[in-house]
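Workshop exercise sheet. Pairs work together: one partner reads the sequence aloud, the other fills in the structure field after running the prediction. Swap roles for the next sheet.
Pair: D.N. / O.F.
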Amino acid sequence: MKIKTVEYARLFSLPNYQNVRIGFTAEVEDGEEVSAIGRLAELVDKAYAVIDFINDLRSAMEKAGEEEAHLIHQVKESRESIERLKKRLEEAMKQLEKVKSGEVQETSLVCEVPTLKRQLETEEEFLRKNEDALSKLAEINKKAHTLYFTLLEKLKKGELPSIDDLKRYRESLEIFKLT
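Structure field:
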């Protein structure tokens, strides 16, 4: 019997009860069958490592997306709180001017001026920190999405990055440090 082609395939389990079958076929010369199977097995393992990395990347991007949504909500709430505090402080300052001019007796609103100013400063600092975090997260997400779609395209073309490249991606991408 003369073997002209060999095939190697494996079925890998994925999260959510999914699986993926990865396999390769090669045409071989006489006596090359065993070594061809070994090379095909290496290719399958490498392809799975890429798919595994892509799944991890997608999972990290989903978590980063949840964090981004949370920060967006906090930024919105901070802006609303700042507007309320500014209005309240403006009212208190008007009352203070009336007290100074003798138009009215001191009111409790006037006593709130220092507290309102501190609350406003605190809320503005909180807003700045969240906006900075949101900006940084957007940049991290952008890099992750670019790599994600680049890897998918390469995978479709049969271009597999090395295992070392995947390790470098994992170490260098900040998105993996968020999770």
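Discussion prompt: The longest helix spans residues 33-101. What would you look at next?
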